[in-house]
Amino acid sequence: MRLYLASTSPARLATLRSVGIEPLTHAPGVDEEAAVAAREAELGHPMPAAEMVQLLARLKAEAIVGAEVDGAPIDGFILGGDSAFELDGVVYGKPHHPEVARERWRVQRGRSGVLHSGHWLIDHRGGRVQGAVGRATSAVVHFASDIEDAELDAYIATGEPLKVAGAFTIDSKGAAFIDRIDGDPHTVVGLSVPLLRVLVHELGGRFTELWNR
């Protein structure tokens, strides 16, 4: 059974590969800012972080329904995911710019925040939608307090923190600046493997059937 990943995230791809799954990937092409703005306009207030990542995860998965991947129709499970970091009630996505990443790190070092990851899984076995389930997970990230400005500058210069929610990783260079994680570490990478297993089972599948590595 194939898993189709509606994401271009190298971290999510690496996570799946590390647990024996070689997904087929397809860029969802979702305008995330526009989608969130539209939903918040409907609600009349900002979305909580967990709801926001879950909305975007669903939209990403739904965006590739009906698409062809590697020249063939989708036949399997479609997974969409999204992540955001929350500190002091403020939700942060990818910083994109060095100066933004630097300011965020100066605020968050020595402190703790919550990384939220949304998941949406569509059962598209047989080439048609047969069901969908999803859930958001969260984990508390505790940052080291003794990080020097020179270390931050060196880290930012690698470009790594510019492309990830919260401006940090735990599966690459940023791991050195994190004291500990409370919760599922995979959530911080952007894809909770234990939750994926649960979602597959809820749709009547078997997680081990996704193993192809």
Explained architecture:
With 213 residues, the chain is α+β, with helices and mostly antiparallel strands. The protein contains 7 helices and 9 strands. The chain has helices at residues 10-18, 32-43, 49-63, 98-108, 149-157, 185-189, 193-202; strands spanning 2-5, 24-25, 68-69, 72-73, 76-87, 90-92, 112-124, 131-143, 178-182. Strands 1, 2, 5, 6, 7, 8 and 9 form a 7-stranded mixed β-sheet that branches. Strands 3-4 form a two-stranded antiparallel ribbon. The model has no long low-confidence stretch (mean pLDDT 95).
Distance between termini? 12 Å
Describe the oligomeric state of these chains in a short phrase. single chain
Main sheet overview: 7 strands, mixed
Summed over residues and divided by their number, the pLDDT gives a mean of: 95
Low-pLDDT windows of residues: none
User: What string, H for helix and E for strand, traces the elements in order?
Assistant: EHEHHEEEEHEEHEHH
Helix tally equals: 7
> Judging from the principal axes of the Cα atoms, what is the shape?
globular
| Number of separate strands | 9
Helix percentage range: 25-40%
Main attributes?
alpha+beta, seven-stranded mixed β-sheet
How would you summarize this macromolecular structure in one to three sentences?
By secondary structure, the protein is an alpha+beta fold. The protein is 33% helix and 26% strand.
